[in-house]
Every structure is written in C-alpha cells, then in structure tokens.
Structure to design on (257 residues):
C-alpha cells in the first residue's frame, strides 16, 4: 500500500491510498489533483471517503463520479450530495484490500466522521480524520460543542500509538506555535517544530503525524497534564476539569493568528 498526500487549494491535502492498481481518495475538494494522480499512476478509482460536508472536502466529488468504480462513503448525518453510502460509528467496509472502520467525531461539524484503516500489508494503521484532529491542534467548533470535540479526540486517543494521522490541512507550524505558548518548556514541541520547519523548507508535508507524537505535542490531547491545565486556567478554565481545560484552550487558540 502506498499513501500519497495530494496538495489542493492553499493548504488542503487530499489523501490517496493505492495498491498499484486501485485507489481510495479521502475528502476530494478538488478533482484535478486526483485525476492527475490516477492518470500518472495508472490507477482505477475504487472508493471516495468523505469526513464532513464542507466544500473544500466535497467539491470534487461530482467531477470524479464518472471515473469512479465503487461507492462514495459519507457521514449519514451530513448534507453531502447524493448518491452515497451513509456511514456512522462502527460501520466497517473494505476497499482495495484494506479494512476501514468509521468513528463518529462530532465537533467541527455535527456529523463529522473519521476513518480508521488497517492496510492489507500489515503496515501501520492510518487515521483519516478530516478537520477534527490536526498535528498539534484540532478543528474549530463550527457546529458542535467543546464537550463533543473533547470526547471525539478521546476516541481517537484510544487508537494504537503507531497510527499514522492523516490530517486534511497543513496547519502544523501554526499549531506548534500555539503549543509552545501553552507548554513553553516542552522539549518535544521544540524538537518537532525544528523538524517540521526543515520539512517545509524542503517543500515536503509535515504529515502524516502519529498518535504517539500527538500525545507528546498536541495541547488538545494533553488536557490531563498539569502544565496544560495551568495554562488553561490562566485563560479562563476553572479547576482541573479536562473538558473545561479543552474549552479554554480552544477559545484561546481562536484568538491566535
């Protein structure tokens, strides 16, 4: 199995997983990079996976339908243009020999889902998380609540540590700047910032990340850490409640540019 991040728009990634013959794409907001990759690699498009309804994740679907030999999977409770196979928590399916499990992760949008993938070749598992989880960050709360997003991230935290985190945007450097504000003494954040800066200077993506890395650098996944709780209390959190810590961090991040 080969995983490719196809750049789209200013900072989106359309993820493509292929086995040399067939391909699955995730959140194709733009059809053009998908069609170019299919042609260049001689691949058949076997499935499209959608995490949520925003146009930068769905805008290319209609142009891809005539090239698609398989289903479009999309959240059952999101306004995605039909036809599609509706999916929700615990739904499982297979494509190009890989198994996929759906995880409900409301917060960014009301019906957002993620896809947990186990490739057929025993490679590290993959998480296609849309705009719920970013490296060193998380999505804005456009339709959901802070408690919803907190528990969505907890579901993702329960996945294996070697899970490769395939986020839909290249927000890592900006998120790491915020993470350093929250935990200025966290050496993992400092080291990963230098690593990501070098990747971007070389024209490479900072993604995928891993859950093992996110547990060390992502303040939204570190709400049980005393230093993170203390920083959140300085920005409105009351006590050491993890949901309150998360909510204060998210509001603080909203004010940062």
């Amino acid at each position: 199995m080969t995983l490719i991040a196809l750049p789209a728009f200013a900072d989106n990634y359309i993820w493509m997983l292929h086995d040399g013959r067939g391909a699955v794409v995730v959140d194709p907001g733009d059809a053009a990079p998908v069609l170019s990759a299919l042609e260049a690699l001689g691949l058949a498009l076997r499935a499209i996976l959608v995490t949520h309804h925003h146009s930068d994740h769905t805008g290319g679907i209609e142009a891809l339908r005539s090239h698609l030999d398989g289903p479009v999977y999309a959240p059952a409770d999101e306004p995605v243009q039909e036809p599609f196979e509706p999916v929700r928590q615990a739904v499982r399916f297979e494509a190009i020999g890989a198994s996929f499990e759906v995880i409900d992760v409301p917060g960014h949008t009301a019906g957002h889902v993620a896809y947990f993938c186990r490739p057929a070749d025993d490679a590290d598992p993959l998480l296609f998380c849309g705009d719920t989880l970013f490296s060193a960050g998380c999505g804005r709360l456009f339709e959901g609540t802070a408690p919803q997003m907190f528990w969505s991230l907890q579901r993702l935290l329960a996945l294996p540590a070697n899970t490769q985190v395939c986020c839909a945007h290249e927000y890592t450097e900006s998120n790491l700047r915020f993470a350093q504000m929250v935990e200025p003494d966290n050496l993992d954040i400092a080291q990963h910032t230098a690593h990501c800066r070098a990747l971007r200077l070389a024209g490479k993506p900072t993604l995928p990340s891993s859950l093992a890395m996110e547990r060390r650098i992502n303040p939204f996944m570190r709400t049980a850490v005393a230093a993170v709780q203390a920083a959140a209390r300085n920005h409105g959190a009351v006590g050491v409640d993890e949901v309150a810590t998360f909510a204060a961090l998210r509001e603080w991040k909203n004010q940062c540019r």
Summary: The mean pLDDT is 97. Residues 187-201 form the longest helix (15 residues).
